[in-house]
Design goal:
By secondary structure, this protein is α+β, with helices and mostly antiparallel strands. The structure holds zinc ion (ZN).
Amino acid sequence: MESKIERLIKDFHQAIVKVENSAQLDEVRITYLGKNAELNQVVKEMRNLDENQKRTIGQLVNETRSLMTEKINELATKFNQEKLNAQLAREKLNVTLPGKNHPFGSWHPLNLVINEIATIFEGLGFQMVNGSEVDTDLFNFQKLNLPEGHPAREMQDTFYLDEQTVLRTHSTNMTAHLLTQLSEQGGDYLAAISYGNVYRRDDDDATHSHQFMQIDGFVVGKDISFANLKWILTYLCQRLFNVDVKVRFRPSYFPFTQPSVEADIACFKCHGQGCELCKQSGWIEVLGAGLIHDEVFQANGLDPQGLSGLAFGIGVERIAMLKFGITNIRDFYENNLQFLNQFKFYGN
Ligand SMILES: [Zn+2]
């Protein structure tokens, strides 16, 4: 019987060294420690032995069983650890890797200027409208005192889509639309701002582009005077540049206003001493304005005897170039992120 147990131990050792995974280990466990294991057969046969032999063999069986159990448990622990290690390696999180970048956008400098100017005029009770960039010759020119053959049309070299359709040369086209509406509705007061892209064929150098943005505004009502115009434009310049800014008005010419002026501000870089920015003049041209021409009222069906109005036009690029110190107008249109990212923290 001892020799049988010795052979079992020998077999067990031979089997256990070949085990490579948990499934094989289970087979070994069932063979040597399961219900039908040979060791159980030995226990059954012990009945025929005397007390001394029973004790000896019993002890031997117990020792064999714990030896096998120990060995099997040892391997089971090893396999479990290996499985856990593999899982940990698979699910490893490397906290030293750089995080995912979620870039956030910024307002375009031209939109920053439009928003700022819109906010100022909103506070003064103006409506904000955005108009069509494709318009008729009628609204872009004729209703604004620019009849066919008018020399001032030469100043705005135009993209014609067909004989009567143009890419608007100024956002003043919306003034014509709104004044016509006002006349149709029989109204006698309107204050509005329009903004958007305008197109001209000729202007192409570092400070001009064939496409640029304008803001156009007007107030129409009873007793609108030049004093109102001066106050509004001075207030606008103070809000846009500096509360102490000096504003001057020079006579100028625009077909849709009479009298017409250009508004300059004292150069904020040299304070009037003369520098490169103000071309040594001490003044910087900011916008054009005037009192709405009688011809414009008439062309839009309004009576110039009962109504008066002021109007002004602002070049958005020009204001943005002045405010942000930009020297090339093309910077606005090239979608260069290095340029655009500089405005990330402005105005938010
Ligand atoms: Zn200057």
